[in-house]
């Protein structure tokens, strides 16, 4: 049976990646320190290791685990936190990846492929071409984006010098079930929670800023594809980096209107001052992933919003239910 390790596998995206590997028959293990991931997200069929990705134990797990693939999603993902504490962001996002790479390098014999979750919007910065393809200049405007780019470059080094196979997925704005509706990131989950509560939605600036919203199941499929399909021959690390987006641009105000249509609500909006440094536009060109791997996003925004809202609603109802009510007879 093939074997996979998913770091950050108790997190929002990582847990869906775990589900995809298990569904394909992989013997799957999870590495997560639960600093942001949740035990409730863990697939019971996975072996769980509660470890910090920067730890020596994490390196030994990778070295000795006999994995065919390592999907690396453990990360500090809050752009604003990276601005406030770039050293901590780099420690987690760069040093953590290096710990895994060094573990792979120490393996005698067949080594696993490492699939890395990078970023689209934060990596390209204020892009000049839309939709933005992988050959666009990488000019991050945040320490988070800088760290992701640094890891991509490290992957190139380890591929050229040590022969370690790697692939990079540059995500658009991922949304879907298991995203925290009470956090600071993930506007769709946040808006869904506020609509369900009947509260106002806060829109920063004019609301004309756009993003490429991609459903989490499509992202999980992309990572699984990169992990299990042959890599393009004779390419640099840039050739192994793929945009994982929809190629569809949606403004914040259009998102509010679509959420209202899907939920049957009439969301109330209040505007707040524009946040400094926020990109006005982000739109990825996913054509390369389609050409090389036949991958494309399959979930429409309307469908994904409906699934996400129903999940947020169900979680709130379960949290509000009296203790012991679950599973009782009607």
Descriptive notes:
The chain has helices at 12-23, 56-64, 79-84, 86-105, 121-124, 143-162, 187-197, 216-228, 252-263, 287-293, 301-320, and strands spanning 3-7, 27-32, 47-50, 69-72, 113-119, 166-171, 173-175, 201-204, 210-211, 213-215, 241-244, 250-251, 269-272. With 330 residues, it is α/β, with parallel strands linked by helices. A seven-stranded parallel beta sheet has the order 3-2-1-4-5-6-11, with helices on both faces. The longest helix has 20 residues, at 86-105. The protein is globular, with a radius of gyration of 20 Å.
Spell out the key features of this protein.
single chain; 330 residues; alpha/beta; Rossmann fold; UDP-galactose 4-epimerase, domain 1; 2 domains; seven-stranded parallel β-sheet; 11 helices; disordered C terminus
Highest-level CATH class of the largest domain: Alpha Beta
Rg over C-alpha atoms, rounded to the nearest angstrom: 20 Å
CATH homologous superfamily descriptor of the largest domain: NAD(P)-binding Rossmann-like Domain
Question: Average pLDDT across residues?
Answer: 93
- CATH fold description of the largest domain: Rossmann fold
Domain unit count:
2
Spatial strand sequence of the major β-sheet: 3-2-1-4-5-6-11
Distance between the termini: 43 Å
Topology:
Elements: E1 3-7, H1 12-23, E2 27-32, E3 47-50, H2 56-64, E4 69-72, H3 79-84, H4 86-105, E5 113-119, H5 121-124, H6 143-162, E6 166-171, E7 173-175, H7 187-197, E8 201-204, E9 210-211, E10 213-215, H8 216-228, E11 241-244, E12 250-251, H9 252-263, E13 269-272, H10 287-293, H11 301-320
Helix pairs in contact: 1-8, 2-4, 4-6, 7-9, 7-11, 9-11
């Amino acid at each position: 049976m093939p074997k996979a390790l998913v770091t950050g596998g108790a997190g929002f995206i990582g847990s869906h990646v775990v589900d995809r590997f298990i569904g394909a028959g992989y013997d799957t293990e999870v590495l997560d320190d639960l600093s942001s991931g949740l035990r409730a997200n863990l697939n019971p069929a996975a072996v769980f290791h509660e470890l910090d990705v920067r730890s020596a134990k994490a390196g030994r797990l990778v070295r000795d685990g006999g994995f065919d693939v390592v999907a690396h999603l453990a990360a500090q993902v809050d752009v604003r936190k990276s601005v406030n504490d770039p050293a901590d962001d780099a420690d987690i996002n760069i040093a953590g990846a290096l710990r895994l790479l060094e573990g792979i390098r120490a393996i005698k014999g067949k080594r696993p492929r490492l699939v890395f979750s990078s970023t689209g919007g934060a990596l390209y910065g204020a892009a000049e071409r839309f939709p933005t393809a992988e050959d666009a200049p990488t000019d991050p405007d945040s320490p988070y984006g800088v760290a992701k780019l640094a890891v991509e470059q490290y992957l190139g080094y380890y591929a050229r010098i040590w022969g370690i196979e790697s692939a990079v997925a540059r995500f658009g704005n991922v949304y879907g079930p298991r995203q925290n509706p009470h956090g600071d990131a993930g506007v769709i989950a946040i808006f869904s929670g506020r609509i369900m509560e009947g509260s106002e939605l806060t829109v920063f600036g004019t609301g004309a800023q756009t993003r490429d919203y991609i459903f989490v199941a499509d992202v999980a499929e992309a990572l699984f594809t990169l992990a299990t399909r042959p890599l393009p021959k004779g390419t640099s690390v840039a050739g192994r980096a793929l945009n994982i987006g929809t190629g569809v641009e949606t403004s914040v105000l259009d998102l509010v209107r679509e959420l209202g249509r899907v939920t049957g609500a009439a969301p109330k909006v209040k505007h707040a001052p524009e946040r400094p440094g926020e990109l006005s536009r982000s739109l990825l060109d996913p054509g390369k992933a389609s050409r090389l791997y036949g991958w494309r996003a399959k979930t429409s925004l309307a469908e994904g919003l409906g699934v996400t809202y129903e999940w947020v609603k169900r979680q709130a109802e379960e949290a509000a239910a009296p203790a012991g009510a679950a599973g009782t007879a009607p």
